[in-house]
Amino acid sequence: MKKDLAVFKEIRQKVNSGLYKYRTKEQIDSIYNWAENEIENLITYREFYNLIITLTDFEGSSHNGTSIPDKKWQNLRKEKSGYFPLPIKWIDEKWVVNFKNDEIPLGAEIISVNDIPMSNLIPELGKYYTTDGINLTGKRLGIRSHFPRYFRLKYGLQNDFKIVYSKHNSNKNEEIILKSVSYAKYYSNFKKIHSLPIDRIYYTTLKENQKYSFKQIDSLSGILKIHSFGMGNEASEEHIKYTKFLDSVFTQINKSNLKNLIVDVRQNGGGDDPNDLITYSYLTQRKFQENKKAWINFEKIPLLKYYNIGIPKFIRPLVVGKYNKELQEIFPLEKNGKYYQDENSDDHKIRLPNEKAFNGKIYLLISPAVGSAGSLFASMVAGNKNTTVIGEETTGGYYGHNGHTPLEYKLPKSKIVTQFSIVNLEQDVPEKANQFYNRGIIPDIEINQTYDDFLSNKDTQLNYILNLITSE
Q: pTM for this one?
């Protein structure tokens, strides 16, 4: 454990440009001092993994990920019992049951599990789902999907679960003991969650024709939904189809002389350049660039003996050498030990608004699911003077993130794999009083789904905007 911890620390210091993005050197040093002392109290593999995942999460990057080896993951997936049986969801500041069953009523609040209050449990499980900065809303997204998996990773397999719950509008707590289920059974239950009509996009693999849509609502308003930017780069057929779609949509918007445009990116977790930038060109009146600044930590990939490239060792030097050359061409400018992106690169290229760009009122719908290229796009739209942002704080940051280029390393003893993106980005957005460096995008008007709308599967946020447009 001591050997792997020392290697993990060296990897982060030499390779990860985001190590001190949201934390000071003193804070990072402090948590590693804690970890080195904590090792003396650890016995099991699972306990050591939990220590490493705590360090991973502390940095604050939604592109960070640390996992046990694939073989161990496959063994977990085969476990026949030990998992919490019921999907849950965050509604009205409570964790409620999101699955129709015979034991606990749909919508009942979970108070505690195995004598652990949810108020204590959620911070412990949040570390398994990384977010930018000190953002917390995104962690709810991971917990509502993978609560049983996280519980198992933290506390081990359980024979059964003592659940204290409260029915809606009841002051009485009730208790029940439920048998644990298999890994597969929980995820089978999850595919049947009550909120599926609202949450369907996020929980399913999107087909090409499900990634975006446009609908004119009335003579003044329309809604553009972009659930993903995963359409490939300029050379892909899907990207070309998407650019034609955008052109036809904004031709229709101009022809219809629409005054209001709802842009819904609530399920957009990212995707490929330049789909985000091309979309933004239809929603701005200013010149812009993908980022103001971008840099990495090194000239050549360090610590190659731990680099998890997944190819035979005899050709590894050739592949790494080619990769290093590409990185040196992209990040040629050395300054104070950092390697900056070429100012003439595509990322720094000044882009112009599209001639069909919309100049009416924009209502941007956001949620905790928005990250990476999705949050880059959303932050740029949020920076527009004609935009009102509505919904919940995003996972991805407003001012920047660590992204673009993932590297993966394997710790020598435990074989734990850690992945992170190496490019530290400063996004091309204006400073705003309600946006914070270490948070996600903050909505101008925070609107969450209400309890009654959860039960009836109504879209509280979209309905709020439609009523707002009508009243203006």
A: 0.92
